[in-house]
Design goal:
Low-confidence stretches: none
Oligomer: single chain
Strand content: 15-25%
Structural class: alpha/beta
CATH architecture of the largest domain: 2-Layer Sandwich
Number of helices: 13
Order of helices and strands: EEEHHEEEHEHHEEEHHHHHEHEHHE
CATH topology of the largest domain: Nucleotidyltransferase, domain 5
Distance between the termini: 27 Å
Strand order of the largest sheet: 3-2-1-4-7-13
Helix content: 25-40%
CATH class of the largest domain: Alpha Beta
Length: 352
């Protein structure tokens, strides 16, 4: 029997670009299909960028306050999105929110996303699903990546799904199982290096193209232990703070050369994993032409860029889909991806 779900997905990533919101419809028959009906990004103002970038250094009280206030922001933005697109709330089955990751240390059974789901539900009056990662972490998993179940069920025509957000992650089938892991850092590095530029990022990778390789820096990047670990494995901002940023700070290369060197490093790390077939690339990093040149250069598969809507909103779409799976009480976290003791159906539900 055919079933339909209409869900609004919210995604806030480590690159701090803003909140991606997508109003999606999912149809369940023998397989799942999807449609993104409306989508929109709400940029963070400078105050919120500062709060979120420094949140891991804040006091427990300030972090708790940020959780509540960010939930209120998410709720208000969702109401604005609903009003602007003239969506009938009675047509909605749920809001599904990833939240914003502050701590991710699965080796300590710890992952923390803020953006209080109870506040979203209270402000919108709509059932809200959030906190998708903690069940998997409690089961001994990495709690990430979570989108591979959506890659498997909604984007199965691609051999690989690569997302270039704050962190680069990949998903693919291997020996009948879905495998996925964080390859390395992406926009976190680019945004850090370009933080003093007026645009705040290297538009199109133009500055990186103008630079040259710092071979010493490239070697140090590639020799970091993480890149030699087997999956399951995942990254948080902690990896950038403690291991990657010091390499950038110690390098005497100019900005263009650092950006160029990082782009080469990123292409090399991604290329190690794409050795056949076709690869779908999404996330803000897909617009960095230098990165895409390097990925094409280092990879053996065909690199495919979809429509801008899919590039920009695939993660919001897939967290909406995780919400649909939660409502169906179906598996939405795969042990083959995360290393957990079993598959699970994660997500806390707050009634509106």
């Amino acid at each position: 029997m055919e079933k339909k779900y209409r869900i609004i997905g919210l995604m806030s990533g480590t690159s701090l670009d803003g909140v991606d919101i997508a109003y999606c419809e999912f149809t369940k028959n023998t397989t799942w299909t999807y449609d993104i009906i409306h989508s929109q990004t709400f940029e963070y103002n400078d105050q919120w960028k500062e709060i979120l970038s420094l949140a891991e250094e804040s006091s427990a009280l300030d972090l708790a306050r940020s959780d509540v206030f960010l939930g209120q922001l998410f709720g208000n933005l969702t109401n604005a999105f609903i009003d602007f697109h003239q969506i009938n709330k009675d047509d909605l089955d749920a809001i599904s929110s990833h939240g914003h990751t502050i701590f991710h240390q699965p080796e300590l059974s710890l992952t923390t996303q803020i953006g209080n789901g109870a506040q979203i539900a209270a402000l919108t009056g709509i059932k809200t699903i959030c906190d998708f990662r903690t069940t998997d972490v409690a089961l001994g998993g990495q709690g990430a990546p979570l989108v591979p179940i959506g890659d498997s069920l909604l984007f199965s025509e691609f051999d690989y799904c690569l997302n270039l957000g704050g962190i680069a992650n990949i998903s693919f089938q291997e020996k009948g199982q879905r495998i996925s892991f964080d390859i390395g850092l992406a926009n976190i590095v680019g945004n850090f290096l370009c933080r003093h530029l007026e645009a705040g990022y290297d538009k199109g990778g133009e500055l990186a193209k103008s630079g040259k390789i710092d071979n010493s820096l490239l070697t140090k990047m590639n020799e970091l232990e993480y890149f030699y670990l087997n999956s399951p494995k995942s990254l948080g901002k902690e990896f950038f703070n403690t291991q990657f940023q010091p390499l950038l700070d110690q390098s005497k290369s100019n900005l263009a050369d650092k950006l160029h060197t990082f782009g080469v490093h990123l292409g090399m790390q991604i290329g190690k994993h794409i050795n056949h077939g076709n690869c779908l690339v999404t996330g803000g990093g897909a617009y960095n032409e230098f990165w895409m040149e390097q990925i094409n250069l280092q990879s053996k598969g065909k690199i495919t860029l979809p429509t801008p809507q899919i590039i920009d909103f695939k993660e919001a779409l897939l967290f909406a889909f995780l919400g649909a799976l939660r409502l169906e009480e179906e598996i939405n976290a795969l042990k083959s991806v995360t290393g957990a003791s079993k598959n699970s159906c994660g997500g806390c539900i707050y009634l509106g």
